[in-house]
Design brief:
With 445 residues, the protein is mostly helical. Helix 12 packs antiparallel against helix 15, helix 13 runs parallel beside helix 15 and helix 18 packs antiparallel against helix 21. The protein is globular, with a radius of gyration of 22 Å. It has 22 helices and two strands. About 2% of the residues have low confidence. Strands 1-2 form a two-stranded antiparallel sheet. GO terms for molecular function: dGTPase activity. InterPro entries: dGTP_triP_hydro_central_sf, dGTP_triphosphohydrolase_C, dGTPase, dGTPase-like, HD/PDEase_dom, HD_domain, PHydrolase_assoc_dom.
Length: 445
């Protein structure tokens, strides 16, 4: 792989353009994402603590903004050194281009996540795996399509959203879309190479396979097998920004909610900061919240520097595709991050409120899936459309109905449009609609 091709500013369907100095195509990508409807919905989607009662607990929106900020910093400082090493790139690119690509891809990294956090992905998958109404579709789709449905993946849904026509025509650059794709492979892959981080999950549905292939060719990703590629180098920085933020900020939230003690939190941050931590100065800050915030900010700075060094030390191996591990798993502070992860799992992610809401999601999302898939696909299953199905169909947004009536020919395509609708819901809307269609509550006049 080479940097000039990797930094392609071409948009699908458009001709290549000269790199602008005042406002680059990558900065435009960032703006297009932040003003889009799918991004706005992240303000009411669970990060860790569902439907938070406290304004300082993070949602998917605040998390995404913070990851983007860290990603921009990582991209810029890495880009600066890459440009120094490759002077011929300086006539076309600046370190701001590297920062803008990573910032835009980081901003969108959770855009495909459904309501109720990662349990929402499992809830959609389990509808097709275990629910009678969902399993009816198995004989109406291909093996690859069934794999998409029974192993729903937020990363692939995000790639789908970013390439759909109706979302204000985002049409992002190939560089940003490739950097966004942490797992550049299809879902149906019998021989997964578990040693490669890029194959841990999958990154696109069958419905977007052709689009992904065009992007991969445009930026010059290394092809490993049929519908399997190596990562775009800047993807490692997007992933690192996400890892840094969710590890440290989930710990910060856990401390503020009383799930992790203040003393334990300080010691965990101290493991990253080492001699940079001035305990006397820390005690001079009166507010405990401000103390934790200060430790978190300093720790992010340390981790950014560690990730930068590791990336640049392995630039040749990254460009050749030989380096394929998460940066945050290989830096000096990796053991501390692993300890934070273990504590987060036991004390934060498995806290009672989190588990209660996740459990509710396993009723809400399959309930919505059953109602709407039956309304959409009754005739495909050999049934006559009922009055209930017709009434339910009219509840779908106009853009989904337009897809179903003009774009979707197969059962798989119809099911994917249904998933677009349900996975795009906010937590609050999903609960509200579920209660109404199940007769638990009625709309207010």
């Amino acid at each position: 792989m080479n940097w000039e091709q990797l930094l392609s500013n071409q948009r699908l369907g458009d001709k290549p353009k000269e790199h602008a100095v005042s406002r680059s195509a990558f900065e435009q990508d960032y703006d297009r994402i932040i003003f889009s409807h799918p991004f706005r919905r992240l303000q009411d989607k669970t990060q860790v603590h569902p439907l938070p009662e406290y304004d300082f607990v993070h949602t998917r929106l605040t998390h995404s903004l913070e990851v983007s900020s860290v990603g921009r910093s990582l991209g810029k400082i890495v880009g600066q050194t890459i440009l120094e090493r490759n002077q011929q790139l300086g006539s076309k690119f600046s370190f701001h281009d590297f920062g803008a690509i990573v910032a835009a891809a980081s901003l969108a990294h959770d855009i495909g996540n459904p309501p109720f956090g990662h349990s929402g992905e499992d809830a959609i998958s389990e509808f097709f795996k275990f629910h009678t109404a969902g399993r009816l579709f198995k004989d109406h789709v291909s093996d690859w399509e069934w794999e998409d449905l029974t192993h729903f993946e937020g990363n692939a849904q995000g790639f789908r959203i970013l390439n759909k026509k109706q979302y204000q025509g985002l049409k992002l650059t190939c560089a940003t879309l490739a950097a966004f794709s942490k797992y550049p492979r299809k879902s149906l892959l019998p021989d997964v190479d578990k040693s490669r981080r890029s194959q841990k999950k999958y990154g696109f549905f069958q419905s977007e396979k052709d689009v992904f292939g065009i992007i991969a060719d445009n930026v010059g990703l290394i092809k490993r097998a049929d519908m399997v590629w190596g990562r775009h180098p800047l993807t490692f920085l997007v992933e690192a920004a996400d890892d840094i933020c969710y590890q440290l900020i989930d710990l910060e939230d856990g401390c503020r909610l009383g799930l992790v003690s203040y003393e334990d939190t300080v010691e965990l941050f101290a493991g990253i900061l080492k001699d940079k931590l001035n305990r006397t100065k820390l005690k001079s800050i009166s507010s405990i919240d401000e103390r934790i915030g200060t430790l978190r900010a300093m720790s992010i700075g340390c981790l950014i520097e560690e990730c930068r060094s590791l990336f640049l030390d392995n630039e040749t191996e990254i460009l050749s595709g030989d380096f394929d591990v998460a940066l945050a798993d290989s830096i000096l502070s990796a053991p501390v991050l692993n300890e934070i992860s273990n504590i987060s799992i036991s004390k934060i992610y498995r806290s009672r409120k989190v588990m209660e809401t996740e459990t509710a999601g396993f009723d809400v999302l399959p309930g919505l899936m059953e109602t709407f898939t039956q309304a959409i696909c009754e005739q495909d299953l050999g049934k006559e459309a009922s009055k209930k199905a017709k009434a339910t169909y009219r509840l779908l947004p106009p853009e989904i109905r337009n897809d179903l009536e003009n774009e979707c020919g197969s059962v798989y395509e119809k099911l994917m449009s249904c998933i677009d609708f349900i996975s795009g819901m906010t937590d609050t809307y999903a609960i509200s609609l579920y209660r109404k269609i199940k007769g638990i509550s009625l709309p207010h006049s």
